[in-house]
Each structure stands twice: as C-alpha cells, then as structure tokens.
Amino acid sequence: MTHASLKELLKFPLVSPIPLVPPKLHFIRRDAVVLDVYVPTIVEVFVVGAIVTWLVDRVLSRTGLYRFVWHPALFRASVLVSICGLLGLVVYG
Asked: Which end of the chain has a smaller Cβ tally under 10 Å, C or N?
C-alpha cells in the first residue's frame, strides 16, 4: 500500500454521522399488579396467547380444517407456541 492510497483511505471518516439503524423505542412494561401480586409480563403474554389460540382453534374446528392435520393436539401446541412467540417479539422485541 502506497502512501497516497493510505491518505485517500484516511480522508473519509470511519464512523458515519448518520446512524444506519434508527434507535429503538424501549417501552417494556415489566410487571403488572393483580390482586396485590406482581405478575411478570411473560405470564400476560402467555394468557393472551392462550386466548388467541383458543379462538383460532374454534375457527379451525368449525371450518373442518383439522381434517388435513396429522396430529391435532401437536398442531394446537405448535400454534400456541407460535402465537406466544410472536406476541413475545412484539412486547420484548
């Protein structure tokens, strides 16, 4: 590397003045109080996920789409994990 090319490299700043990734807004509610007991947010996420999973289960059973599922109990468990995971990403993400 010659002296001139080294000067060319050092001419530009190594750190960009404009951030490449916008800053995240960190609004995470840590605990809720239910009947004077602190409940972690993950429990609330699980309860909401269970309710949404129950609604999805009712829709799938009424439309008869469970006929195409190999193992309905395993499918229900995977839907619960997926919905709770998505809600967790929304809350903690």
From this structure: N
User: Partners of 34 in the beta sheet?
Assistant: 37
Task: Work out the angle at residue 69's Cα, subtended by the Cα atoms of residues 63 and 73, and round it to the nearest 5 degrees.
Answer: 100
Single out the residue of 77, 78, 72 nearest to residue 60, CA to CA: 72
Task: Name the residue among 44, 56, 53, 38 with its Cα closest to residue 91.
Answer: 44
Rounded to whole angstroms, how far apart are CA atoms 41 and 46? Answer: 9
User: Sign (positive/negative) of CA torsion 77, 58, 90, 92?
Assistant: negative
Please report, for the chain, the start and end positions of each structural domain, with discontinuous segments joined by +.
23-92
Q: Where are the alpha helices (DSSP H) in 1-93?
A: 3-11, 41-63, 72-92
The tens digit of pLDDT for each residue in 22-41 reads 555 555 567 778 888 888 88
Is 23 in contact with 29 (CB distance < 8 Å)?
A: no
